[in-house]
Amino acid sequence: MADKIRVVVLYGGRSGEHEVSLKSAASVLRHLDRSRFEVIPVSIDKAGRWQWNDLHAIDRAQAASLPILPDAPEMRLARGPDGRCALVPISQSGAGPLDIDVVFPVLHGPLCEDGAVQGLLELAEVAYVGSGVLASAVSMDKDVAKRLAEFAGIPVAPYRVLTRKAFVRDRAASVAKATEGLALPVFVKPCNMGSSVGIHKVKTWEALGAALDDAFRYDVKVLVEQGIDAREIEVAVLDGETPFASIASELNPNAHHEFYSYEAKYLDPDGARVDLPAKLDAAQMARVRMLAVQVFAALECSDLARVDFFLDRHSGEFCFNEINTLPGFTSISMYPKMMEASGVPYGELLTRLVNLALDRHLQRRSLERTYAS
Ligand SMILES: Nc1ncnc2c1ncn2[C@@H]1O[C@H](COP(=O)(O)OP(=O)(O)O)[C@@H](O)[C@H]1O
Ligand SMILES: [Mg+2]
Active site annotated at which positions (predicted)? Predict the structure, then answer.
């Protein structure tokens, strides 16, 4: 037991994707190699409380979505007596402190995937799976991510950025800016969300105002983006000596959904059909895999990311849509499925991710922090 690597699986989180995380984490806990890793399940509830959950109870329940029990001991991350990062109980609970080796954040969305949790883990000086603060933050911001991709020569759909401040000050001017040079339909998106929350397909200019009002409920920055008649192609990237791009998949939202909406993603069991591999010719497949690695590098990601593209049905060109630095990990999620189809089974994938995190942490710890002349 003593030589096992202690992995904290961190899940839940204060984002709209809390419930997705509970499912992702259930699947990660099932697939982590228990012969190598001692697994500690730590949840973050919607109020932001961190709790240490009972692994045996979770194992016994075999639930597809992890429950967060109110009486699980509340914990915080702190430096243990020997200087290592530890889980420390907040109240008298009989639990901990417990030294930990690595954190696997199985969290999605704002405050979870956007560099906030990653910053906390940096301060705690603990190894963690996934992109660091910079890549997490820029990848979550759909505007900045696209700007960096464009700068690296990767095509993106034309879009305009509106701020809530400007929208509130002069609604007409914002609407005029949003429509200039774009043709219907357009997509209105909160800049930093996920799971299609707050996204609207706008088919008449009269409908634009209401769509913007709704999107500004979720973010102070909103994108108005050229709608493209496109196929939706995704690629999973796994870091290594050189980043590895999986075989691409295609998501075909069911025709009765206008686009790949929240309903199509999570509520409708027939919301989308997946083709894995995507039905692409060899040149298209090679191109999208190469673009995925280029995006991963341009955004300075680490360990893993799912990179989503549109394949324009008219021009035949790919454009980068968005990147997820902590993609879904449920039993039906595309990231593990694409890796599996590319020769990396789920359990081995998790082992590789944990090892990547430990290696990176070692390298960073060896850097000089002070300057002695
Ligand atoms: N420019 C666009 N053209 C066509 N469809 C789009 C466009 N932008 C978004 N969509 C549709 O909306 C869905 C969600 O948008 P996306 O930018 O991927 O946000 P999220 O982070 O919420 O997944 C996409 O999967 C796609 O179906
Ligand atoms: Mg998406």
Answer: 17, 195, 333
> How would you write the pLDDT of the chain (373 residues) with one tens digit per residue?
558 999 999 999 998 889 999 999 999 999 999 999 999 999 999 999 999 999 999 999 999 999 888 889 999 998 877 778 999 988 776 666 899 999 999 999 888 889 999 999 999 999 999 999 999 999 999 999 999 999 999 999 999 999 999 999 999 999 999 889 999 999 999 998 777 888 999 999 999 999 999 999 999 999 999 999 999 999 999 999 999 999 999 999 988 888 998 888 888 888 889 999 999 999 999 999 999 999 999 999 999 999 999 999 999 999 999 999 999 998 789 999 999 999 999 999 999 999 999 999 999 888 887 877 7
Contact of 248 with 277, CB cutoff 8 Å:
yes
Residue from 43, 139, 261, 333 carrying the catalytic annotation: 333
Q: In the annotation, is 131 catalytic? A: no
State the residue for tokens 């300075």: 300
**DSSP-assigned letter for residue 207:** G
Over its C-alpha atoms, the chain yields an Rg (Å, rounded) of 21
Q: Of the candidates 272, 180, 177, which has an alpha carbon nearest to the alpha carbon of residue 222? A: 177
Enumerate domains of the chain plus CATH numbers.
5-130 (3.40.50.20), 139-156+228-325 (3.30.470.20), 159-226 (3.30.1490.20)
For residue 241, the number of C-alpha atoms closer than 13 Å in the C-beta half-sphere is 0
Active-site annotation holder among 15, 17, 21, 113: 17
Answer yes or no: is the C-beta of 230 below 6 A from any ligand 1 atom.
yes
Written as six digits, the tokens of 129 are 């799976």
Spatial distance between the Cα atoms of 80 and 102, rounded to a whole number of angstroms: 14
**For this structure, is 195 an active site residue?**
yes
Q: How far is the CA of 156 from the centre of ligand 2 (A)?
A: 14
Q: Which of 171, 216, 173, 213 is nearest to 193 (CA)?
A: 216
Q: Is the CB of 196 under 6 A from ligand 1?
A: yes
